[in-house]
Amino acid sequence: MLKEFRTFILRGNLIDLAVAVVIGTAFTAVVSSLVKNIITPLIAAIGGEADFSGLAFTIHGSKFLYGEFINALLSFLIVAAVCFFLIIKPVNALMVRFKPDTPTDVKTRECPECMSDIPIAAKRCAFCTTRVGPLPLDAA
Questions:
Q1: Which are the contacts of 124, defined by CB distance < 8 A and separation ≥ 6?
Q2: Which among 40, 51, 64, 87 is most buried, taking Cβ atoms within 10 Å?
Q3: What gap in Å lies between CA 100 and CA 119, rounded to an integer?
Q4: pTM of the entire structure?
Q5: What b-and-e string marks burial along 36-54, b requiring 16 or more CB atoms within 10 Å of the CB?
Q6: What is residue 140's DSSP assignment?
Q7: How do residues 35-89 score in pLDDT, each as one tens digit?
Q8: Contact, 130 vs 113, CB < 8 A?
Q9: Partners of 118 in beta bridges
Q10: Which residue in 69, 77, 79, 73 sits closest to 29, CA to CA?
Q11: Rounded to the nearest 5 degrees, what angle is found at the Cα of 37, between the Cα atoms of 35 and 41?
């Protein structure tokens, strides 16, 4: 049992996941600090409010801290923008650059069940797995 546990712990994807969580946590702290110490004061210089975390309103004794929500929303938007511009855009560019060309002369027909395009010689739809009969001779 200990050997299996050691094998489980030392698997590459588990180690990668642990590192990703640690890096993500550190990145979150950096982004939160950026929002609190740089972005919020910049907005305050324009709008006049120095700290969003103090913004709140009260209804029937219940206090709603909408300033904390604004800080969290700014943090989320910055993380999303960084992920998009530093990860998604470069990976998409690489995928387009190294993607093999698909042949354009492949003849297809429509699946009668899900209306997806499937190769003429297909016996089963790859999308809905419906069996498709042979194409009539006059349609080929």
A1: 130, 131, 132
A2: 40
A3: 19
A4: 0.49
A5: beebbeebeeeeeeeebee
A6: -
A7: 778 877 787 777 776 567 778 889 999 988 888 888 788 878 887 887 788 888 9
A8: yes
A9: 109
A10: 79
A11: 90
